[in-house]
Structure formats: structure tokens, C-alpha cells
Amino acid sequence: MSRTRVHNFSISLDGFATGEPQSLEAPFGHAGERLHEWMFATRFWAAQGDGSEGVGSGEVGSVGVDHAFAAQHGLGFGAEIMGANKFGPPGWQDDPDWRGWWGPNPPFRTPTFVLTHRPRPPMEMEGGTTFYFLDASPADALAAARAAAGGQDVRIGGGAAVVRDFLAAGLVDHAHLVQVPIVLGRGSRVWDGLEGLEDGYAVEAVPSPSGVVHLTLTRRVPRA
Ligand SMILES: NC(=O)c1ccc[n+]([C@@H]2O[C@H](COP(=O)([O-])OP(=O)(O)OC[C@H]3O[C@@H](n4cnc5c(N)ncnc54)[C@H](OP(=O)(O)O)[C@@H]3O)[C@@H](O)[C@H]2O)c1
């Protein structure tokens, strides 16, 4: 059965998945790149390719615990769901030419559903990514993504509001969050309103020598 999974979702010690304010110049606000430095050091990230020498060759980047977790992000997915604030900076809905942060060939390579109260027509990108814009409940968005996923899993790609809403709605089967040893104090926090979440999940924590802690939440009772 197609599962709903979250991967590589990085949070501060106080649970923020982004700082503030979000902007074109600073997509993660005052958090900068600190939430993802653990991932940038991995071979998984290098293999994504950013055009620099050696990148993508499979010969750069760490191959330890952080890489092993990070690489799960790419395995077994037929669709992604993300929030409007992941897709672009505040106000992107007013720019008819905005096509996401990722250039002409985004890394998703599947149908990718952007939740927004101001939807627009689908955008077909290079490499297999098509962005669909939906104003829908989490359950209805998941039904659409699952129908497009060809029997594979659906990734909930963030940001915090969307991960939180899907957890609150009981729609997440497996979540991998990465606790980074920084305190942000402000931003968009994932845990608000999720009191007692652990009752429904087996929670494991795996510390990495890099200083981050990988948290996995696996639903105790599979969805019918
Ligand atoms: N730490 C990580 O690993 C990670 C991963 C991914 C993203 N991020 C970051 O997280 C930040 C974004 O997170 P966020 O919590 O601010 O926002 P978000 O979860 O990306 O998006 C929330 C927005 O999506 C739209 N939306 C959500 N649910 C909807 C629904 N059911 N129907 C229609 N529209 C819906 C609404 O926007 P509108 O009302 O404006 O349409 C809402 O304000 C960005 O900085 C991003 O880079 C971090």
C-alpha cells in the first residue's frame, strides 16, 4: 500500500523548521542554512548535483549515518505534496513567472502538489516534475497525490505548517525529522497543537557524530 512519508525534515531544538522572515534573499529567514548543513555534507546531497566540479560523481560527501538517512528521501516516491511557503517566497502568487526555487529541472521528478489558496494552472518542468496547485484539505490533497503516484509512496515535503497539518489529520505513516543543535526562538514550528502525538507512533532517536539527532516516527497502527 502507498504510504505517506516525511524525510529529511530539519528542525531546531525548539522545533522550528524555518526562521523568519522568509524572503527571496533568505528563504529560511534568520535560520540561514544552519538547519541543513548536516545534509549538505553528505554524498546524498552531492549526488543531487549543483553543477560544481566533482558533484554528482559519487565521490564527494560523507557516507555515514547522515548520508544513510538522507538517501531515503529519494526512494519509492511517486508524488510530493508541499506548502505554498516552500514553493516560493511571500507574494510568489503575484508573479506569473514564478516557477519555484529549483530552476527548470527540479529535483522532485514526480507530480508535485502545491497547496495554496491561490491556485494556478499546472506547470510541466524538465525531468518529470509537474507542479499542480491545489486548494484542498490534506485528505483531498493526499487522495489526488496518491492517484498520481502510481502505487508508490507520497512524500510530504514541508514546510512546517503542512507537515503539522498532515500529522494532525493522522495522514502520516512515517516521519524522519532531524533535530539540529541550534535554538531559533522564532519561525514556523512543527509541533504546535500536536500534544500526545507520540501515543500513535513508535519514536526512535539516532544521534549522529555530526551533532544532529535523527528522529523517526512510525505509525503504530497501520492505516486501513
Ligand atoms: N526544515 C526543513 O527541512 C524544511 C523543509 C521544507 C521547507 N522548509 C521551509 O519551511 C518554510 C515554509 O514553511 P511554512 O510553515 O511557513 O509554510 P508551508 O507549510 O510551506 O506552507 C503553508 C502555506 O501553504 C498554503 N496551504 C497550506 N495548507 C493548505 C490547504 N489545505 N489548502 C490551501 N492552501 C494551503 C497556505 O498558503 P496560502 O494561503 O498563501 O496559499 C499556507 O499559508 C520555508 O522557509 C521552507 O523553505 C523547511
Automatic annotation (TrEMBL):
InterPro entries: DHFR-like_dom_sf, RibDG_C, Riboflavin_Biosynth_HTPR. GO terms for biological process: riboflavin biosynthetic process. Residues 8-194 form the Bacterial bifunctional deaminase-reductase C-terminal domain. Pfam families: RibD_C (PF01872). GO terms for molecular function: 5-amino-6-(5-phosphoribosylamino)uracil reductase activity. This is Dihydrofolate reductase. It comes from Auraticoccus cholistanensis.
